[in-house]
Write a structure and sequence with these properties.
The complex is a heterodimer of chains A (about 290) and B (about 325). Chain A has about 290 residues and is an all-alpha fold. In chain A, a hairpin with a 2-residue loop joins strand 1 and strand 2. Chain B is mostly helical. Chain B has a domain of about 200 residues. Classes of the chains: A mainly alpha (about 290), B mainly alpha (about 325). The interface between A and B is large, with 43 and 43 residues. Chain B: It holds the Pfam family BPD_transp_2. Chain B: This is Branched-chain amino acid ABC transporter permease. Chain B: It is a multi-pass membrane protein.
Chain lengths: ~290, ~325
Amino acid sequence: MDLFLQTLVNGILIGGILICLTIGFQLTFGVLHVIDFAVGGWTMLGGYTAYWLVTLAGIDPFISIFLVFALFLLIGRGLGPLIYHVRTSRYARPDLMALAFTFGIFLFMRGGALWLWSYNSRSVDSVLSGQFLSLGPVTIPLMRLSAFLLAMLFSLGLFILLYRSRFGMAVRALAQNHDHAGLMGVDVKRVSAWVYGIYTALTASAGVLIATIYSVNPSVGIRYTLFAFFVAVLAGLGSVGGVLVAGLALGLLEAYVATYIGARYSLLIVFGTLYLVLLVAPKGVLGRGI
Amino acid sequence: MASKPVLTPKLIVRALLIGAVVIALTVLPAFIDSYTLRIATGALMWAGLACAWNIVGGYAGYISFGHSAFFGIGAYTTAILMQSNIGASFFVTLLPAIILSIAVAVAIGGPTMRLRGAYFAIATWAFAEMLLQLATVLDFTGGTAGLSLPAYLNEFFFYYTMLIASAASFIGVWLLIERSRFGFRIKALRDDEPAAESLGIRTNLVKVQSFALSAAITALFGSIYAYWTTYIDPYSVMGPEITDQMVVMVLLGGLGTVWGPALGGVLLWITNRYIWSTFGDTVIYLPILGVIIALVVLFLPNGLISLIVGRQRGKELISRILGKL
């Protein structure tokens, strides 16, 4: 029973970070109609940025995460217009071209990271490493708890932005209909670019938290792209609210598989489940809408 | 009523050109050393793989990120059947490899190709990753340690096997897609699926057929590759790099064209080997692939082949690029 409770807590804590990882991805799909293959790439780059910030400048990842957020907000804002351009171009299949384009970006990130930093895993140290909080039978690493809380803070911030600001209203209008939003005076191109920026910033921040809890190497990107896909598909592509449930579901699934079946099967079972969900309920288990 | 002339000058030129290429490829091994021969064998393989991917990605308009799974199925079938406890000969293993890959393609293609583009891409990718993980945990695949095959060190044999397989793939695709009703169906469903369906095309059937054909060719090359390299492990035959290369080769050469994949495959493979011999490894090759995809999507969506034949000539391309700056 203790093991069961401990696994439950671990699953929820990781699930919170997966929410932060996927929520921006969903927003991008809802607004730009782009499936971004590079989502794991942004996660990885966020982790590496935190690694270099703590190694070279000694900035703790729980502080540098805000720097990472700002940095990737600008990078994403810069890249956004290109994505928008490809998605709205007059190719035969702009959706597939956009998919191929982000696939290229992802390949560039993964290959570039391999080239620059080799296959080695790097761990990101924090002052919170190795500290624990005991709650009855359950032991909670302080780092995971803080990471969870930060991830929730970022996700909550996105919801406040979406539902309590003029910019958020413009984003929601875009998600409903590009043409109508444009006619109502929304600068479609600019808002889309900022949405892409917010997405990369959120995903890179989640990457900092993941790198702090585990470690980071160039091939983690593929894993987290698939995790993001999993959560997104379970929630229904484009559904931001559904991510809250689906992220926790994946966190719990992975934790229980790792505890009771064996860690080396966890990826296999996660991918198998994703595949089954796609077949049984391709529109998502939880409905859609922003 | 004037009948269509059988031999137009254009056709004669084309036939002469193809004949010249065939003869050149046949006599090539006599003039090059064994190192270059290996590169040529690899180039033939990648051209064939790109051709296979193009059937689904280019003609049917369904981007598959899971073709490494079929390459791996072919490689592992051959490797497992050629282990000393079974001891099948190489050519005998080709048939089960192809049948298995078709069975898997039908089993996963049937349900997933009902999903539209993006979902299909995700589903195939998840499937390929799942198979990769499976190969690392199962016993009869040798796990992460991989499998060794009986070595057959005859480079000429592999060159000609790859040549025949590759030529058969291209001729088969040309006949099936450019010269038959199947080709019209598959292109119709790419361009407008509901419209194709309303004309009585059974789109789900056509999609699965094209996916199975593509998978079978990919598995065939996987089998030959396994015998050629004599050692396989999960990442060398099912790793994401295999799919990555196939996608980029087709995009670079030209989506949905017969000869584009050949052009893209040969060019990129030579680039790959050149980088390998210059830098000692191919790590820098991956970011280059990424940049190529992004540039092709932005500036050359119809691929390199469109510069040689078709609407988009080089001059126009340059003005397009300048117009965007």
